[in-house]
Amino acid sequence: MLGFIGKxxxxxxxxxxxxxxxxxxxxxxxxxxxxPLEPWHTFVPHELSIKELDRAxxxxxxxxxxxxxxAVRTEVTQKLPARDRVPVNRYFDGxxxxxxxxxxxxxRSFILEPDGEPVGVAVFLHGLTDSPYSLLHLARxxxxxxxxxxxxxxxxxxxxxxxxxxxxxxDWLAATRLAVREARxxxxxxxxLHLVGYSNGGALAVMYxxxxxxxxxxxxxxxxxxxxxxxxxxxxxxxxxxxxxxAILPAFAKAAWLSxxxxxxxxxxxxxxxxxARQSHLLSTAVQRSVQRLARENRLADxxxxxxxxxxxxxxxxxxxxxxxxxxxxxxxxxxxxxxxLNRATKLGPLLSPASETVVTRLLPPSTRNYRVSIITNANExxxxxxxxxxxxxxxxxxxRELGLSYPPDVFSLSHIALPxxxxxxxxxxxPDPAEDFGIRLGAIAAHGERGTLIMDLDTLLRMSSNxxxxxxxxxxxxxxxxxxxxxxxxxx
Length: 493
What we know:
Strand order of the largest sheet: 1-3-2-4-5-8-9-10-11-12
Structural class: alpha/beta
Number of helices: 14
Order of helices and strands: HHHHEEHEHEHEHHEEHEHEHEEEHH
CATH class of the domain at 38-303: Alpha Beta
CATH topology of the domain at 38-303: Rossmann fold
């Protein structure tokens, strides 16, 4: 019997070795077919450590940031080989999309100051591979409503994609703490403190708010506003680290990358390292565990109310995880979940996934909930005009409100990347405002032709990159801004 078990285990081990070797070989084959690594994939700028971030102030962070951008100019821009000195390369200083040419480089951290004394302060946390530009419109709106707006460039971002190859999610959280310290140093309690997070920045906003419940040295936010928050990610991200294993051998350095692409976007990386996916998974897992632990210990009662905007279909993050791993654990504290439904009036017929028909009902629990739910959906299946269907916390009754907004023709849904940008965004908008020129209008491109001709894949062009319901987002944020702080006295630290 023992001999049989031993033989079985030996055979199993041999099978595992064969499978592992096969997967390793397939991964090596796949990466060798792709384009070569460029200077922006190999130069890793030096970012402040967690200890340095926790000791630094805003002035010190900006100085370090300036040093990083100077290093990128020296080590990347000024050393580009002739083949990379082309108009579609953001790192070529002769290109119209080179960020240094703009009136302001929105890859960098920034502060927007209101006229007069600030009535509050808001910290803005951008997404993975992104830059502070992604929350510029919301930051400007907060500024116009009398808030001081602080948007920090999270470590590894805004410079070169290689910056994400050696970053940990704890670095991003340390930078979040730094930004909140600056916010409270400039605008003292009881003036309200808001955290506004997009995608990966949404996970950071939640993680900070949870930490602040346990650490009395951290200023607690009064409100948290999330757009497409990365509370859960795709299953592949869990195993992304395995995809990078061949990179331990110098000959297979490209294995450290999930995608190696031309960098034609002035404010977002197109190339994506394995470590970026791995850190996003680790962060989202840490958020979920912290939520569950604090819920078990009945310590979420003082958590700031959360307002979340989310598309029902999202290729990047799990919409279901936002409901099951965050909202299902929230107390009845005035939180709200806003869902943007598919455009039910599109006549795409069998081209739409069958699962899309019931996506909303499958996402939300049918019983009463501790949070308000607002669904932005077609008034009926023959109209592009949308309405807001609201179910209050603790109720199952639904109220309907007309919004005076509609889906643009031929748009069948929003996307993960669309929510923070109005249709008039100069870079991502369907109807870009010419007042700002970033050298390219990515959201307005409607190209038809043969595959393999463009330097970008057609999925990039097809994906919706601006939000026709951004006026609704602004209106709802205004309601949050107007609400008095429920914890004004306790925010003093």
